[in-house]
Backbone:
């Protein structure tokens, strides 16, 4: 596993723990999107956010 993939998984775990400490029912649903995207990036190696920005024309 590469360091970048491990970083995605670590940050996602920290975000999920923060959401859990705040209360799952008290957190807006939009806050779940970044950690889920980071878990996908950590497991698959494909970063959805990076693909989105590349399609928008950023390098």
Residues:
């Amino acid at each position: 596993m590469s360091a970048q993939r491990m970083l995605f998984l670590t940050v996602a775990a920290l975000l999920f723990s923060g959401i859990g400490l705040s209360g799952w029912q008290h957190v807006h649903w939009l806050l779940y999107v970044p950690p889920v995207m980071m878990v996908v990036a950590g497991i698959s190696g494909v970063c959805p956010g990076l693909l989105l920005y590349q399609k928008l024309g950023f390098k």
User: Anything to note?
Assistant: DSSP finds three helices and no strands in the chain.
